[in-house]
DNA sequence: GTCTATACGTGGATAGAC
DNA sequence: GTCTATCCACGTATAGAC
């Protein structure tokens, strides 16, 4: 095979674009940025992806697929619901450790400027996340590894919102420790340790 | 005075720009957008603000000043720390009700692409918020209106992160009710009602 | 598959008239 | 203060050669 493997180039384009969108946003990167970094021309990119919108769609589809696979892996390997939740937080920490924002969190901020199919894909991503979280929270209440104040639905929103928001803000100074502290406090609030909850009236 | 009052025009430019940045992001709006909406030319805007960077700075300065004033008003009028916290959440709900993202939350997402002075201002905004929240949380533990699991610092991060993150996500479908449910659950978790915390061992 | 060349719009900005 | 005119760089995209 030649050194110009279409699939390989396509994959590298996606890798570079993904990093650029996660760090600079959809409106903050261009074909020129990607081409320069790969030593290609802008025209060459149009061979692999018809336009920026199509590139964006391919980006989010791959991201969503990977994320779903990671969640499936957690479901398959984690011993209980609490461990699944810790694993979920770990996924976010990994992204932040690479000095990136969640791809869909970034796109959510810009959603008013996105091509419609992209906007839909972002919504679907968060819906899938909320569904998974709600199920894990319900599992946790059943297997006794988690306690769920209020509804599982609202708690799922709190978890998702806290993680996305904490990423958004701690990325400003790259303070991974602050993210971890925030996430730990979130997890503590959902942990099924009866003694920790009410320290007031001994 | 003529109908071309410089201060008035400047103020209207800021109003329109603020809305555009909050909905579309810094990289998603242009002098052209603002000029069109105000019936001016791009060149006219350059009279009021030297460039986009200066406009952005003026924007964030006015926003931060307003926000600080709102916090001071809460300090002055709220009966206790819990009420201050509810008022704080209300500020976010108002922004979301106008179908906007928090200005600084939006800019935080794009921070890698911002002119340096703007980036600094965004950091300062969140620092000020965290400081205020930490103080209110400590007050709440003292006056008995709040309970603070973990450190006040980490809890302040959780509050800030949850609100920014919940805005980011619920804005996708404009579901204000979902934001409210999320925020209420957050507040419940910090409320100083000893009975609610430990429902397990009656 | 990748290139050069080219097209066309837009964005930010400046000069100078009124 | 606001305009017209103009500038230049950039971004997206297409045509056609190799």
From TrEMBL, chains A, B:
It comes from Trujillonella endophytica. Keywords: DNA-binding, Transcription, Transcription regulation. This is Transcriptional regulator, TetR family. The keyword Transcription regulation applies. Residues 30-49 bind DNA. Residues 7-67 form the HTH tetR-type domain. GO terms for molecular function: DNA binding. The keyword DNA-binding applies.
